[in-house]
Please model this.
Amino acid sequence: MRPLALTMGDPAGIGGELTLRAWQAWRSGVGCFVAMDDPDRLRRVAQDMCLNVPVTTVSTLDAVASLFGDALPVWPVYLAVPVRPGQPDPKNAAAVIASIEQATALALQGRASAVVTNPINKAALYDAGFPYPGHTEFLAALTGATGKQIMMLASPALRVVPVTVHASLQRSIQMITSERIVIAARTTAAALQQDFGIAAPRLAIAGLNPHAGEQGALGDEETTIIGPAIDELRDEGLDVSGPWPPDTMFTAMARARYDVAICMYHDQALIPLKTLDMTHGVNVTLGLPIVRTSPDHGTAYDIAGKGIADPSSLIAALELAAQLAARRVVAAGGQPDLPG
Model:
């Protein structure tokens, strides 16, 4: 079977521990992945965390499935300087970036079934000259999908898509247009059909202002920007509702009426999802020619090196990546990869 490619993330964060614990959870036959990482640093993390995880290096993905039950396969990406937990070093930024590049290349070549990314620290990469706002934009550039990428956060309780992502609240409001909403909704609907197996997805479009503008008394974006986008999407045959008042659309009763919430800005989307189910939340990048998922949390420098990081979100990201990749194979007329 084709393995998932799991990136290093920020080596000063909890990504190494999560990778080791995910291998322990998956080694019994759930699936398999290859870590794009520094094997020596993973061995040190395993030793420091008292985790029984043998590490073996690979130079081809052909043997990953057969090796996976006995050891964590690692595609070597070597760090420039030793790691101090909780203290990111720009000198290691090149390795972090190379890990993402190599995982993406393997997925584009069809050698890996999907890319799963451990959390990065954007500021540490910016200090090293990284020109992208984050993972999502970098992956779009690597896959030739710049401008097509859409971020979804998914959990068993809720799926959300922010129309604007890594921008200040003031800038996000300025960026909201009918066209942006339409593009986000179209991409999301297509992904729900192709990757999530939802034949007729129901999209709920959030308002921007309190009470969705209160008929213009609290803001007119709902009537001048969001409403026209909804009309256009409905004319295309999509099942779209809204604008929904943001303060009531995430109740249990409301969530039963839609498959995804299209939100206007980052926190409007991520706060309810992380409040409802931080443990099993997964970041999914839509609009790419490859499958990419990630945990919905950050590097957690405050607990790095303490052996207490919860791997649940990374495990959920691996599981969802495997499911989405299998659906793409079936949609293309092939046979899905079977667990190794």
Notes: The longest strand covers residues 239-244.
